[in-house]
Write a structure and sequence with these properties.
Elements: E1 4-6, H1 11-17, H2 20-51, H3 57-84, H4 93-126, H5 128-134, H6 137-154, H7 156-160, E2 164-167, E3 172-175, H8 187-222, H9 227-266, H10 272-283, H11 285-296, H12 298-308, H13 314-317, H14 325-341
Parallel strand pairs: 1-2
Antiparallel strand pairs: 2-3
Helix pairs in contact: 2-3, 2-10, 2-11, 2-12, 3-4, 3-6, 3-11, 4-5, 4-6, 4-8, 4-14, 8-9, 9-10, 9-11, 11-12
Domain G-protein coupled receptors family 1 profile: 40-293
Organism: Alosa alosa
GO molecular function: G protein-coupled receptor activity
Length: 342
């Protein structure tokens, strides 16, 4: 495959490629994510797959989320070398294609799976009776397969083209920082592609996630409170807060900078280094996800505690009941329904 060469790259792009934000700050963030996220998500993946006995829908989503986070971490080491080298790619077109596809695929899967967990929490809290029929492990697995399939289809243009580009003015080779002509077809098709990606994997999931967690929070506030539920409600409140706040903190900057960058480019200006920096901020979400697993699933908490304290009595581990929002409100509403029926 012949390497594409760009002889007349505009000055804004040349300045962007030499920005300290992309050559120093961004790889430092990626390096931090590799050191923290990889061992945490690897441990979570092993515990979820091999040591969690009851595979609930929440566990199925958590397994796929940890897979996406691990795939993301795998794609980062070459990115770190690339950015520390002054945005000069020296690993070949195939490696560039793999890391780029893995990077975007894992990030988009993480967004959609987080959104699916939000919908599951919404059903468990607001419609607990229906959630017993809808939120099954089989259906959760099918949802995850659809998510992975959709993301792979969206990544098809990146799989079919060489994403490296030689910039003669700087004597370096970029990897998807300067998109080779024809990768996404004509210019209108390119804007259509990125607009579709923006709507599918950022704007729409953000709306769904915020709406679900607002409904969950209202359900938590309006539900009948008993002494049995107090301990479990703390888990529910913290889990909802972490999931919603982390999504807003780590993904919203990327969403806003995508829009602003396109607007600035139309005026022959650029915010690309800041947009790239939001990818680093985005990657920090991988470090938070293991805490979401812990708060979202009673089964995972019990497994994690047994792994830390193998000598502890299993009965004590299993005493953590009604810890997820769906468990709490399925119990509360069922009890209220039974008392009214009597």
């Amino acid at each position: 495959m012949n390497l594409s060469v760009a002889h007349n790259v505009d000055n804004n792009t040349l300045q962007d490629l030499g920005s300290p934000l992309t050559t120093v700050v961004l790889p430092v963030i990626y390096l931090l994510v590799i050191l923290v996220s990889t061992p945490c998500n690897l441990v979570c993946f092993i515990l979820l797959c091999f040591y969690t006995k009851r595979k609930t829908s929440t566990i199925i989503f958590a397994i796929n989320l940890s897979m996406a986070d691990l795939l993301y971490s795998i794609s980062l080491p070459l990115q770190v070398f690339y950015h520390f080298s002054g945005n000069d790619w020296n690993f070949g077109a195939e490696a560039c294609g793999f890391t780029t596809v893995a990077f975007h695929c894992s990030m988009q899967c993480s967004v959609l799976i987080t959104c699916a967990i939000a919908v599951e929490r919404y059903l468990g809290v607001v419609h607990p009776i229906k959630s017993k029929h809808w939120c099954t492990p089989l259906r959760a697995g099918l949802v995850c397969l659809l998510i992975w399939g959709l993301v792979l289809v969206v990544q098809t243009p990146m799989m079919r083209h060489d994403l490296t580009l030689r910039v003669e003015q700087l004597n370096l080779t970029t990897c998807f920082d300067v998109i080779p002509r024809g990768t996404f077809g004509t210019k209108p098709l390119t804007y259509t592609y990125f607009g579709t990606v923006f709507l599918l994997f950022y704007a729409l999931p953000l709306v769904i996630l915020v709406a679900c967690y607002v409904a969950v929070t209202r359900g938590l506030h309006n539900s009948p409170q008993t002494d049995v539920e107090d301990y479990s409600r703390r888990y529910a409140w913290v889990m909802c807060s972490i999931a919603a706040v982390s999504f807003v903190l780590f993904y919203l900057p990327n969403i806003l900078l995508q829009i602003l960058h396109l607007l600035f480019r139309s005026q022959e200006h650029s915010l690309y280094p800041y947009y790239k920096l939001t990818h680093g901020i985005n990657s920090l979400n991988c470090c938070v996800d293991p805490f979401v697993y812990y708060l979202a699933s009673r089964e995972f908490r019990n497994t994690f505690r047994k792994a830390l304290r193998p000598c502890q009595c299993c009965g004590q581990c299993d005493s953590d009941e009604l810890s997820t929002p769906s468990d709490v409100f399925s119990y509360a509403k069922a009890s209220l329904y039974n008392s009214n029926k009597q």
